[in-house]
Amino acid sequence: MLTSKDSLNSSYLSPVFPVLPVCSSSVCVCSVTSSDLQLQRLHKDHSSENGKDTLCSVSECVQRQYHFINVNKTWTEAQRYCRENYTDLATVDNMNDMNELKKNVNDGCVWIGLQKTGVDRWQWSSGDPALYLNWDPTQPDNGDEMCALLKDGQWHDFPCSDSFTFICNSSNNGAPVGTVSECQEKLKTYKHKINIKMINWRDAQSHCRQNHTDLVSVRNQNENQQLQKFIDDSHISDNVWIGLFRDSWQWSDQSNSSFRYWNTGEPNNNGGNENCTAIEQNAQGQWLDISCNNQFPFVCHEDKLILIKEKLTWSEALRYCRQNHVDLVSVHSEEIQREVMNVVKRASTEEVWLGLHNCCSLNMWIWLSGEIVCYQNWAPGNGTTPEDCRLEKRKGAVQSGGDQRWISLPETHKLNFICSRYEE
Length: 424
Ligand SMILES: [Ca+2]
Ligand SMILES: [Ca+2]
Hints:
Radius of gyration: 23 Å
Number of domains: 2
Bound molecules: calcium ion
């Protein structure tokens, strides 16, 4: 794995790489041929007229392809139609998805795939999975307290309508751009923005989404300590909203997107049976809960990642994806990793091949899409130490269970794999 400039300074590299490869402007790939991996160098020009980098900063990429179906159906009929003809009724992961989805729909109400389950679940506003929880020992202690705040390093559930200061996460979710070491530095830095205005949780969420990225997520003990230190250093009040909330809504495709875009006053369960979600184009696409028996047009989505539950070697998997779809998936950002996590949990093998290969001569991990591994999600002990690749070539796979990190395996292992339909 490329960890620093030093790892590229080996003398045999100099003739091949006169300059240090960077994440976006000059990309080195190992091209895959039928017989072997051969090193070659590609130049990709990502500059635009204004000189800004135009590499798809992934939060701006279309995550899914949306299809508006202008036929009135009940929510359940619409779900059936989408599952037969596409992937499912539309899931929305973030504001970019929402803007994409809104583009082509009619005025009036339009079904999306969010349905009430009746069972509450704690979730991060940013969509990060809520695997790490750090409740105060007495918390959570109240069924009506649906939002969480940080107090003395521990979490408390509170009524979402109460007013507190809050912390936004302003780190850019897109693929970091710059040299590898800059990228790694960026990934380590969590830029918090504190807001001393005291407002309710929902307003704090809107404020963060409009001005920064989202309300802050706390994904492990280290982040919790960093955040508490940040609060202590800022000398603000004890109670600070974080991005944790719970609700009982679930997407039709079972994905764990916690993005919500309710209109003011919604969901209100008017009449007691509003168990489905529609967007209202004349309310800027904001959502309302409404009875599932209404007949509306609807939006389906088509996933761009497909889990193939065959057991193949890495090379066989690559051939399959290139013949039937586009390629083995390249996970060059946290956004794509989240999509991978959604599909990989249905796998029948413990690991699942990704389009990640080790350039033996460079001792460097590279995506099939041609990018150096900048965003990283390796399991401990994988990817970061030099591989002994002289005897067998190593490829990257993602764990289908646990925290779904990447591991390095000999390419002859037979695993499920994920094909991508993204045209790079
Ligand atoms: Ca409480
Ligand atoms: Ca309603």
